[in-house]
Amino acid sequence: MSDRSISSPTPDGDALLAQADALHDEEPQKALKLLRALDIATVSTSRLQRLSFLLDHVLGEKFELWAEALAGQRALVRQAGADATPVTFRHAAIAAQVAGDTALARDWTQALAASSDAPLAKARALVSLGAVGFSVSRLGAESAGRLTLQALQPLAALHATPGNGLDAAFGAVTNNLASELLERPLDDLAQPDLRTALQLCAEHAQRFWERAGTWVNHERAHYLSAMAANALGRGADGVAQARAGLALLDQFDHDGNERVDRAFLELELAMGLRLAQLPGRADALARALALAAQFGKPWLDRWFAERNTRNEALARHYGR
């Protein structure tokens, strides 16, 4: 993003940001245009963190305009000043690292560590992992798996690091990476490095959320692990993870506020039972469908239908 486009006056930066945020996946070209028209000086301080993500996600990940994303991050960090958050520094450091500005990447990674009360090595690992997360969608299966495994190498030691600074961020980044990998084309799921990377991402996400998350984070980590296991054709593991997530809902969700989560967990339970050729699949699927019928929101209906369709494709892929 050029300094000229960043400073172009706009009537309301928050409004442009909200528009870009609402359509960045469905209409990335339009989101790019909106972000380029946005004057960072008119964006509320509380919204700068979201903008920092969109600069990397849209300009960098979707269009490989990392130099432009970096220019935007420079302006954003200046605008945020003392209010810059760890998330802001993380996305800025990622843009600098991918764009090849080692000095800025170093400075912002140090700022990330300091603002999070975390060791510098932990911040470096998070930035490197985040950079891979914004890159794997454009890579072939082998390259995506290999680069993810390289970025995951430091994480085993981090679980033993005192304090939980950045643990929630690691939980989110590894969750997103696993979600990206498990939705790859079916043939990609046979690639050994990608398979290992997917399994490890889900395992790391679960461990980081256990340290830093709420019971809802723990439950959703089980859901991620269930999806990952089923994507890899490991139905018994998918069953165990889905049942663990459902058990947490039984224990804590007394008012039924997480009925959507329950529907998706039941769907993965049904899938795991199908892959493992165990009884109970029809009942689990019936429970999932009954819950989904109560969503009442088109985007949720769409998401559930897409997940169900994907599971059907996985079942055929694994001969079940």
Name its key features.
0% strand, disordered N terminus, mainly alpha, 320 residues, 17 helices
Question: What would you note in describing this structure?
Answer:
By secondary structure, the protein is mainly alpha-helical. Helix 5 (66-80) runs antiparallel to helix 6 (86-99). The chain has 17 helices and no strands. The chain is 74% helix and 0% strand.
Low-confidence stretches: 1-10
Number of strands: 0
Please describe the biggest sheet, giving its number of strands, its sense, and whether it closes into a barrel.
Answer: none
Helix content: over 70%
The shape, in one word, is: globular
Alpha-carbon distance between the two ends? 49 Å
Strand content: under 5%
Give the number of helices.
17
Helix and strand content put the structural class at: mainly alpha
What's the short story on this structure?
This protein is mainly α.
Write the SSE topology.
Blueprint: H1 3-7, H2 13-23, H3 28-37, H4 48-62, H5 66-80, H6 86-99, H7 102-116, H8 120-133, H9 141-152, H10 155-158, H11 167-182, H12 192-212, H13 215-231, H14 235-252, H15 259-276, H16 281-292, H17 298-317
Helix pairs in contact: 2-3, 3-4, 4-5, 4-6, 5-6, 6-7, 6-8, 7-8, 8-9, 8-11, 9-12, 11-12, 11-13, 12-13, 13-14, 13-15, 14-15, 15-16, 15-17
